[in-house]
Write a structure and sequence with these properties.
Elements lengths: L2 H17 L1 H11 L4 H22 L3 H10 L1 H25 L1 H27 L4 H28 L5 H26 L6 H23 L8 H26 L4 H7 L2 H14 L4 H16 L44
Helix pairs in contact: 1-10, 1-12, 2-10, 2-12, 3-5, 3-9, 3-10, 4-9, 5-6, 5-8, 5-9, 6-7, 6-8, 6-12, 6-13, 7-13, 9-10
Length: 341
């Protein structure tokens, strides 16, 4: 199996693990009164401890040091963004339900990334009107889906505060998009190891979330075995393992293909919520969810061939077929930065 196929498989597995996170939160809330912020902080902290231990066992100290030296600011921002996204997502789950939170947040993020990619492509080279039309269709389809999901959440009261939950899901998707974009630029650097990035980002996220959770008030502990087991699952599987798989896969997988693969997350969440929790969105919610998923699937290529290279020989990262960055070939352009300031 080729490296791109392995990378795509890793991203798919990450999507499936992420899709179980909302369901796990619902189970945890049935056994503990800990707040969403506290759960998010525990999740990041457990994942950070696991990743640091794994890095120590695998002797990835040099890779960690190289990342911190070369990109300290961006690595920390990725971690803080990841922590914020988790808190917003769990807040949406608690107020609007698993399906609304996951489909909206995960459906919105790729659409935003597609818009950013098109803007970058316009700066690098001419973009065919066909690409612009396709993006317009994708965005309008996604927005239509968001409206329908919003109507369904308001009418059927999927969660106790559906409107707030929808807003939190939109914020979560926006932060997730920005964090993913920044993480992708880091992985393009030869000094960045996927495990090192996951470890540093998760540790930074935990450092940022723990004080916020403490300020938010307790309870901070539980003795319920089911709650403790669910916390461990959230930290180890839906955070440490899932993000490790995602960044490892993203290293060899084109972003368009990775976006399609992560569709397994909302699909997994919706199926799991329907089977285990009995959540139902009704006809409007189902149609809205399908529209969002269709919109995300529609942004896979946007003008690229199967190798990620457009008709001008420029790939989606701005590199030509020889690996030269088309955005920096101008002799008057400043040299690219190799280190955060």
């Amino acid at each position: 199996m080729s490296s791109p196929r392995i990378g795509l498989l890793l991203v798919c597995l990450a999507g499936v693990l992420w899709g179980t996170g909302g369901l796990a939160l619902e189970i945890l809330r049935d056994h503990s009164s800990m707040s969403v912020l506290t759960v998010s902080a525990y999740r990041m902290l457990i994942a950070a401890l696991v990743l640091v231990a794994v890095s120590f066992v695998l002797r990835r100290g040099p890779q960690l040091a190289a990342l911190v030296r070369a990109h300290p600011v961006r690595a920390v921002v990725v971690g803080l963004g990841t922590g914020a996204y988790q808190a917003l997502y769990f807040g949406s789950v608690a107020t609007a339900g698993v399906t609304v939170a996951t489909v909206v947040s995960l459906g919105l993020a790729p659409v935003l990334l597609a818009a950013v990619d098109l803007v970058r492509a316009r700066r690098r080279t001419a973009v065919r009107p066909r690409s612009t039309l396709r993006l317009g269709l994708v965005v309008s389809t996604a927005l239509s889906g968001l409206v329908l999901v919003s109507a369904a959440s308001g009418a059927d009261a999927v969660g106790p505060r559906p409107v707030l939950g929808l807003l939190l899901a939109i914020a979560s998707g926006s932060v997730y998009a920005a964090t993913t974009a920044l993480g992708g630029t880091l992985l393009a650097s030869p000094v960045v190891d996927p495990l090192a990035l996951t470890t540093v980002a998760t540790t930074a996220g935990a450092v940022g979330l723990v004080p916020v959770a403490l300020a938010g008030g307790g309870p901070f502990v539980t003795s319920d075995p089911a709650a403790l087991g669910t916390l461990a699952y959230l930290g180890v599987f839906t955070m440490a393992l899932a993000y490790g798989l995602f960044y490892a896969g993203l290293r060899t997988t084109r972003s368009g293909a990775a976006v399609v693969a992560t569709l397994l997350e909302p699909v997994t969440a919706a199926v799991a919520a329907a089977i285990v929790l009995g959540e139902r969105l009704g006809p409007l919610g189902i149609v809205g969810s399908v529209l969002i998923l269709a919109a995300v699937a529609g942004i896979d290529e946007h003008g690229m061939d199967e190798h990620g290279v457009d008709e001008h020989g420029v790939d989606e990262r701005g590199m030509d077929e020889h690996g030269v960055d088309e955005g920096t070939v101008d002799e008057h352009s400043p040299a690219p930065l190799t280190q955060d300031g």
